[in-house]
Amino acid sequence: MSNLSDSGLSRYGWTGALDHAFAEHREAGLVPARIVRVDRGLCDAVTESGPVRARIAVYSPDPLQAPCTGDWAALRPGPAPELVALLPRSSAIVRSSASRSSHGQVLAANVDTVAVVVSLAVPQDPARLERLLALAWDSGARPLIVLTKADLAPDPAAAHAEAGALAPGVDVLLTSVATGQNIDVLTALLSGTTVLLGSSGAGKSSLGNALLGDELLSTGAVRAQDGKGRHTTVRRELVPLPGGGVLIDTPGLRGVGLHDATGSLEQVFAEIEDLARGCRFGDCAHHTEPGCAVRAAIEAGELTERRLNSYRKLQRENAWAASRTDARLRAERGDRQKAITSHLRATYAFRDRQS
Fold first, then answer.
1. Which end is more exposed in the chain, N or C (fewer Cβ atoms within 10 Å of the end residue's Cβ)?
2. What's this model's pTM, rounded to 2 decimal places?
3. Residue 202 is labelled as binding a ligand
């Protein structure tokens, strides 16, 4: 076993448990590495002896199994390094693929904290925040809402309260890179691997630079009319933080499709789930059923119709994504069975010709 205190990987999150899990690969002459960024069949990674550029020799038809930023991997060293295996992930941020296929897309792996970054320079979009929170909860990491550009908000306290109402059980922090507000508090809250998730123009890269204490991440201007920015971050990238832990900056997300987030929806809309337990009927759809606790809460002003509609919409989207995945898996099983049957027929035909 390697000496963790001397390992260059310790500042990237390498632990005794990972070292133990890597024992088999080490015996095969491979070295551990963490993927910093992926680029068209190649990746930048960091090893115990420093950064390397390696060819990705791991292939899977399922994009969920493809190497991504944050993955721990086994690397074959040498003049032409190759990434040959991935270690099991402790967490992963997964959204539906941009192509709307039944496959998911992994945005980052082995993440401890998902910082959902929301700009207060423009009006908040509650539905989008709920989507991002579902993505964060589904990853298995701890969600955190970071409200940026508080110095440009007309009423920061009201914005803070609004975000908190949309995120039961999630910490919400007001920040401003321009004034330095709560940057030290945010730094203290982060540990392990943190990923910044949000729209273009939300201030992710500026926030990342403030946490890093240097202008290491590219930033750009935003449009005044809608607060949207250009993709100054074009790929996911992992950078060590000065006080320990690592930061993953991601390109701004235009589409936030859910892949398989049933459990996370229950967490995002925890108050609706709690209310539904009080409905007279177990299969209550919360429309016009008698004894509906959810409708009663709306009538009492304790829950908004918008919130319930958002919950329903994300439930429908998640169910559609799940059905697409099930259909793909059934088709793949059918294709495998057809291939086996075809092979057996060919074998029997060959035997008949030989007899």
1. C
2. 0.81
3. yes
